[in-house]
Amino acid sequence: FLKAIVILSMSAAALSREEALRSAYPGARITAEQVFLTTAQQRKAEALSGVPVPTQLVVRYLADQAGELVGRAYVDSHTVRTKKETLLVSLDRRGVVKRIDVTAFLEPPEYQASEAWLRQYDGQPLSEDLRVQRAIRPMAGATLTARSANDAVRRVLAIDQVLEATRTTGR
Asked: Against a cut of 0.70, is the pTM above it?
């Protein structure tokens, strides 16, 4: 009986990308795209976020309802301690965090950020206060997870700003 509960709770911990996208943008048409940042865009995103942008390849999803863009979601895979975590960071049309979903977490489960902890990012724009121990409370016993997740959110918000500025200005 206990085994079944543990297995159920572990499998519910990570949503598939498709499930997370449907939850973030109900009823929207989702289009996947791969974007290659220029070196200048990558450097700009690093300067805005204050964290490394280790690759120029960006995977994002555009959410469209009735011909209007309602949001963008980005995949950020990174190492927490020694193993990978993948977050899907969903933004609203203004480029503010709508929600964060864990789609893969290979570290021990006790180090995974809870849904409640991740929800404190909802409604947050990129700012100097978007840091652990400022606008974001720390996570007891999982400092590396908190830092990695915060870096991922800052990176995504900065990349989105750079890509949206390019889209609207053409530069």
From this structure: yes
* Cα separation of the two ends of the chain: 59
Residue 48 tokens, joined: 């805005």
Q: How confident is the model at residue 5, as a pLDDT?
A: 33
Measure the CA–CA gap between 171 and 45, rounded to whole angstroms: 14
Rounded CA separation 95/115 (Å):
21
117 contacts: CB under 8 Å, gap ≥ 6:
137, 139, 146
Token look-up 């965090």 returns 97
Strands (E) in 37-147, as ranges, are: 57-65, 68-79, 84-92, 97-105
Residue 153, by phi and psi: left (phi above 0), alpha (psi -120 to 50) or beta? alpha
CB contact set of 100 (below 8 Å; sequence gap of 6+): 87, 88, 89, 90, 118, 119, 121, 149, 153
Amino acid identity, residue 33? E
pLDDT at 11: 34
Measure the CA dihedral 31/36/41/42, to 10°. 110
The answer, yes or no, to whether residue 68 has pLDDT greater than 60, is: yes
